[in-house]
Amino acid sequence: MEPAILQASSDTLDLKSALRTYFGFDHFRGEQEKIILNVLSGKNTFVIMPTGGGKSMCYQLPSLLMSGTSIIVSPLIALMKNQVDAIRNVSDDESVAHFLNSSLSKSEVTKVKNDIQAGKTKMLFVAPESLTKQDYIDFLTSVEISFFAIDEAHCISEWGHDFRPEYRRLREIFEKISNVPIIALTATATPKVQHDIQKNLNMLDATTFLSSFNRDNLYYEIRPKREVEKQIIKYIRSRAGESGIIYCLSRKKVEEIAELLQVNGINALPYHAGLDPTSRARHQDMFLMEETDIIVATIAFGMGIDKPDVRFVIHHDIPKSIESYYQETGRAGRDGGVGECIAFYSYKDVEKLEKFLQGKSLTEFEIGKQLLHEIVSYAETSVCRRKFILHYFGETFDEKKCSEQCDNCRNPKERKDGREYVLLLLEAIRSLDETQKAKHYCAFLAGNITADIKSYEHEKLPSFGIGKDKDEHFWNAVIRQVTLGGLTAKDVDTFGVLKLTEKGKNFIEKPEEFMLIKQHDYSGDDDEEGLIQVSGKGGAFDEKLYDLLIDLRKSLAKEKNIPPFVVFQEPSLRDMCLQYPITMDELTNIQGVGIGKAQRYGEPFLALIADYVEENDIERPQDMVVKSLVNKSMLKVQLIQNIDRKLPLEDIATSQGKSFQELLDEIESVVNSGTRVNINYYINTILDNDNQEELYDYFSAAESDDIIDAYHEFDGLYSEEELRLIRIKFMSEMAN
Prior knowledge:
The protein is an alpha/beta fold and 736 residues long. The chain has 34 helices and 17 strands. The relative contact order is 0.06.
């Protein structure tokens, strides 16, 4: 299909016919038709439309209908590639859309320029950095431009969640190229950001199309950050075969989570700016083509993936702003189907993000802190999350319409009339002349003397500490709810100073019922650093199974004429009663069980546990696996190599920075997991043959391998180290 090259005229074009011809749709969505008509009539256009609302159509269809080439500024190479591929799919001419960015070779750039000059290319996607190059400016000045489109226009504003300085130069570059209309588009923009965008682009005259930010098919939930990896695996397994995205704070965490999911049999791939472009593109394509179910990505790196059937978005770490959160969750359910948005929250994440702000300019620092304060408020609030998000974007919403599509509406907290507390807050704001931010009022009311309160001498005021029967956490919750209720407002230009609204002033004069909702308390969150380890973290300990395993061990030991502890030690049996292993792989994840020991003694134990699980209908905690960290495995290899080289154990301990006792712990761990080591060369230097045989015979006949029992048996004749060394020799030769 050849793209039409028509002079735009809104009264002669049948837009619906063009929509059907090019894209196969019978109807426009929302205000798409009005927006397109505005672009075709040559007017500046500003579009704020949620992710999944169909923004790209607003510049794609006009591009195909107008004479010349449209220039579409996009911040991401991945997003450009994705959009160019999509446009080429509606045309039989590959030249209909191109992109210009740093990933192209010289010959590829030449091909793009030739196609534009020949009038074949209707859309050219460019990175803002590319537009600053003089040779590109000279080239674009020589060809016909239909209009400029700026995708992700929030990048223009310092108050936007993804500010990029090069975006602020776009207007001056456009003026050098051509005096044609501009369409700016974004999915996330507060009123402050909207004004910043229009002012910077010198398009305050633009027709603005503001769609509702409400995505009623999305479910929002915040969970405390406890055993987060286990929760994620369990959640994904309950949605087998569905597409999902997991966002993490760092590249390292992205790699770890992707690897953890893969180890657990979940089809997942990492995606972040540190990957080479080829891997990034391949991982993106595999996700789009459903060759992988899960993408794990950094929140700092937008993915530009337009996949309609993403069923869930998980935030392993809380993002740096509500705009980021809204945009990232907006990747779920773009086809109108189910979209679940689960975020794990711990204040430790916020502290990490605050560290990233150090060294920024004062303005950037204050803006960043204010954006973080808002996302903390969102995470900790007990009011309707949808109402909170929409209020942030300047939109009012009746929480009754949430239809339990957020955790707070699904499981509402206790409410009670809190007018007395609201009044205390509002009067405190008035008494401090509306000059402070929320944190200051919380400390002031709770009676806590902070550095700021001391510097203003506010502790000397008669109303200081008037609400000290409640803590700062409580007062922070009151401020959030009073702001949502329209009694106070945050002044954006002063980075969040609280002001009384007319409604708030009226409340002081005539207090009325104000229902306060009890807030979440995340103060005890466990923000785990490492990946999950099994070691007894399963369900409740199963005494009944333990007795069965003890009996089995006893009969097996008798049959093989060895002490029971040689088969499996008690900590291993106890871990089996928490994890219920039923495969050889699962058994090797049990504490103190390696491959060798599992293969030698495991089969009857696995059979017993499998029957027990089935008979008692037990739900096994198999949502986690032991993640062997590379450095630990390397130390184990080095230890075995050093023993093979017959190095003195004291020297090995020193080289690994361990005490002799710690080294013995390490060797015992290696041996107990089923690996054979030969330390005879060392034992021979401290014990003669008769002593060795005496101790060896003791462990051969003993009911227990307990060292204290052995020490008492020989009345202290042998030291603890000597007893442990012979026990290692015995276990290595007999059990492995």
